[in-house]
């Protein structure tokens, strides 16, 4: 497949380079030629075929840099040449990152609800697309093209990871704050048996959740603005708390639960991100509701839909019934009953 598709294009690129090599151009001019006239020849292949093998890719990169430096050794390190001007680069295209970026656009296409494509992949690859986002990439995927797409998605998520917990806290709260990190890390495991929710919460705590702020930086999204309000930059704090569409949702949720159960769920940014870190009475179910609400918000964002309280309520009721049934299977009846009894009115509402 590679020789059929890529080789003729690489030959074409060789011809374009031959023509432009006759002109006197600076490396800056040549980089513009590469970005406008040359790479466009390959865009379609990068987008729709598996990434070419290392040898082909190296050959292509070698051809481009030989053009820039007129067949002489590189004068500037390649990594530096690819940086922004202010960091001493000339904004040369990082081909490997560029290919990954194109592959990532498929994730967005797949997450749009009920497309034919989604159904096709789910049946041929025997995977669930939601698992891709919420459980990480499937290893069992056979098709080399989708393997590339899922690999790019995982790599992108890990780029978000802060170096340590301190860095994470200063990123979120802009001030130093003390947390019981053991409790923070344990919260989701103590709250539910769902590995989907464990992985989701893990990515929040490790800050590897794909907000538009990050997706914009890596050029997957056209804008870093919030999916819901389109006003502020969508970072982790905004998407789960400060966005006015989201804070309204938390208020409605709190009112509904209080009216049905007379239980108060206090919310602030710490509790929303990390959970209510107590281990008493109703804390487990409070955390479950907070976790499920965050999951609903994130899932709605990925599908680029609008959040609304009825949608959240239905999602919560459906998920809580499942959680409750599982809990009753694991625990002695009287213990499970004490735990769930105060919450039954919201399931029956
Ligand atoms: Zn917003």
Helix-strand category: mainly alpha
Named once each, the bound ligands are:
zinc ion
**N→C terminal distance:** 57 Å
The structural domain count equals 3
- Give the fraction of residues assigned to helices: 55-70%
Please give a handful of descriptors for the protein shown.
66% helix; 3 domains; mainly alpha; 349 residues; single chain; binds zinc ion
Plain-language structure description:
It is built from 20 helices and no strands. With 349 residues, it is an all-alpha fold. Helix 1 (2-21) runs antiparallel to helix 2 (27-38) and helix 14 (236-242) crosses helix 15 (244-261). Bound molecules: zinc ion. Zinc ion (ZN) binds next to loops. Zinc ion binds at residues 226, 228-229, 231-232, 238, 243, 245.
List the helices and strands and how they pair.
Elements: H1 2-21, H2 27-38, H3 40-48, H4 54-68, H5 78-81, H6 95-111, H7 116-124, H8 129-134, H9 144-159, H10 165-173, H11 181-191, H12 195-205, H13 212-217, H14 236-242, H15 244-261, H16 269-274, H17 283-302, H18 309-330, H19 333-340, H20 344-348
Helix pairs in contact: 1-2, 1-4, 6-9, 11-12, 11-17, 14-15, 17-18, 18-19
The chain binds zinc ion.
In summary, what is this structure?
The chain has 349 residues and is mostly helical.
